[in-house]
Hints:
By secondary structure, the chain is of the alpha+beta class. It contains 15 helices and 29 strands.
Amino acid sequence: xxxxxxxxxxxxxxxxxxKNERTKDLLKSVLSEAENVKGAGEGASLLSLGFAYYYTGDxxxxxxxKEVMHTVCSEDKWYHGGKHGGFEGNSExxxxxxxxFMALGYALFKEFLxxxxxxxxxxxxxxxxxxxxxxxxxxxxxxIHSIDTMGHNWxxxxxxxxxxxxxxxxxxxxxxxxxxxxxxxxxxxxFKYEGNPINTKPVNYDEGGFWEGLDxxxxxxxxxxxxxxxxxxxxxxxxxDDEEIxxxxxxxxxxxxxxxxxxxxxxxxxxxxxAEDMSCPALMIRYGLDIPEIxxxxxxxxxxxxxxxxxxxxxxxxxxxxxxxxxxTSACYSKIGWATFRDSFENDSTLLAIKCGDTWNHAHAxxxxxxxxxxxxxxxxEGGGPQSYSVPAYQGYYVQSIAHNxxxxxxxxxxxxxxxxxxxxxxxxxxxxxxxxxxxxxxxDATGPMGRYFRKHQRHFLWIEDIILIYDDIECYExxxxxxLIHEEKEITPFRMLTPCExxxxxxxxxxxxxxxxxxxxxxxPTGVEDHAKxxxxxxxxxxxxxxxxxxxxxxxVTYGDIKFYVNKISDGRVMHKNCFIEADGxxxxxxILIENGGKVAVVNGSIVRKNGKTLLGVFARINGxx
Length: 627
């Protein structure tokens, strides 16, 4: 029967016999949703109506579903028409939603439809849904989009809906099998897209990390997996060899997740409403993938999820499966400019997340921004985040550099046009990532995004034991004031600005508000023409320790307990054809940062270290890490 494309009667029988309390709660929620469908046209409700009918046998759910489908079919068109979302066409996200739910409804209720009703529903779905999508997005003779221009979440959402419907209705529509094959090829091309330097378009997925952030990796993967699950149940195989990329995407979701019993928290970069609607992890398990890390994720965030339907179908399996946190406690996605470091995956641990990549659409103008979670809370946050174009302050504040933990020049950050033109022309980047033997490091280079003000802007993040040292090395074109912004979520936080400089309190917005409702700090350093501004700051993870700061002609010394940092002020490109040696406390080195930690010595960007004339490091090219 065609309903097997969605679920089987054996699965429903298993749910009836389940002793798991979570499964019982999910069952009540799904049946309640079906019971409370208010009016026709609620396409998403077709899944709950279908489940409710096959679970209870009550024909009232069939009648309501038929009402929904007939109402959608009676609409003149399944798109907003004209210009929508910045482009012209006959299909967009609204039409993709109607298309997929009409197809799922048809699969669930086909046997209850008369021949005329079947023809009416398939004909409307084909003309208003499937073919408008294929003509706009897929077929070469009519296609108006390319992955290079619309290759973010819209592409996979629209294509997946079209090929899902074609899969379910393949025997009732013209060239159904051919449409399915072409649609599968299109999905594969989207996942494997490597970017386009002419259009400054980034890779879609960098080892599983999606450049538009968590809400949009969830949305795009959710739409694909809805289709892929149906395809697998119909054809007995995957649409293409997609398992490796989905596993990598699963790990990206884990590395940007902060476990806590106090609140559901995920890395907030870009447009995001949080992750309560994160439905794609459950769909991964539904797809038959054995991913212990996703089991860990689902079990740890159980009370927050809203995706009741898919979770109901899988929860007994989840409850019986092995859960395992990722073995790696850090990750760097250098092609999209995201990195995370944490001390563990235990609840309420410490997580540092850094972003320095593309800016466009849902990716904000936030090169070098960072956030810190500690003790179950976001303690260093940011003002960005609301996925709501209707908020008046959205374009002027939330997506701009000023809303993030970035550096400005004379109060100005990245060009505001980066968000709405053809991406930032020279994206930020993360380089020299390393996590080994307690040495955690990455450098964020925002020289491109801030190129109209800075000849150079590099921000170094160095995590050693219970301190995270942050060193900003900036060279300005013009005389002016450099502003270091920090958005603290609490009155007392681990953040310390060590460089002597004045700060001022600024007013901002939070939580989708367009009324001033928060404060943040701007630390200010004046600079001359072609001068350097250098900020040394720290995140002190031990409340009982305070760093000591000393500044000398060529270097800065920071002492934190038994750890000493020597920041090389002249390792900034100012000397040509000569090495940038400093001498400090018996050390002679060319390293950008030299670290002494209980008898061990480490370097950031160093090739030579001598202590009292004895060579500790002597390599031909600079390295990072303990020596």
